[in-house]
Amino acid sequence: MTVLLALSRAIDAVTSFIGRWVSWLLLAAVLISAGNAVMRKALDISSNAWLEVQWYLFGTVFMLAAAYALLQNEHVRIDILSSNWSKRTRDLIDLTLHIIFLVPFASLMTYLAWPWFWLSYQSGEISSNAGGLVIWPAKLAVLIGFALLLAQAFSEIIKRFAVVTGRIPDPREEKSSEAAAPASEVTHG
Questions:
Q1: For residues 39 and 33, what is the distance between their CA atoms, to the nearest angstrom?
Q2: What is the mean pLDDT of residues 113-137?
Q3: Which of 30, 104, 105, 140 shows its CA 20 to 30 Å from the CA of 147?
């Protein structure tokens, strides 16, 4: 189990790095969008390439941030149901659903995204829009996004199993208590 937990920590570190790094792409997308709008309104200049860069950047952020959302426990779940369950029940359901649904889904999408990306890369596929960009970088983001999500799913399975079996304290609770600690410390002067 020690080796698996070390693997989980390594996956978490990669996911955290990529999750923090990809946030800068959002800023780039906003700046490009604003610049494109200003050029279109002020100078009557427009380009499909600028629009496609925005789409690529937003899509890349979405795809690469999915694993980070899972790591941070910010993924979609039905809180109205899970909030009424015990922590152990939530952990067991997370563990089970990651194994039954998330891993097969992310595996299938990674498997299907590889030839989809590779064919586009080999053929030099270009957007059908006038002045459009090459398409393979966007398809690569899909492939990498699902591969990262699959790796993070394995990390979460390892951690949930270790928590359920009592091998480690819950990392989610440690993060939430660390985040809450500074807010609860009030100085009176």
A1: 10
A2: 90
A3: 30
SS3 content of the chain, % helix, strand, coil (to 5): 80, 0, 20
Degrees to nearest 5, angle at CA 55 with 110 and 15: 45
156 closest CA partner among 64, 107, 94, 79:
94
CA distances from 63 to 7, 101, 129, 181 (A): 22, 18, 23, 32
pLDDT in tens, 6-43: 999 999 999 999 999 998 998 998 998 888 888 888 88
Structure tokens at 149: 């999500």
- Give residue 48's pLDDT: 79
| Closest C-alpha to 45, from 35, 55, 54, 53 | 35
The CA-atom distances, in angstroms, between 99 and each of 1, 15, 65, 146, 169 are 18, 19, 21, 15, 21
pLDDT of residue 21: 92
CA atoms 124, 127, 132, 138: torsion sign:
negative
Residue appearing with tokens 């780039």: 28
What backbone phi and psi angles, to 5 degrees, belong to 170? -70, 115
DSSP state of 75: S
Neighbours of 142 (CB within 10 A): 20
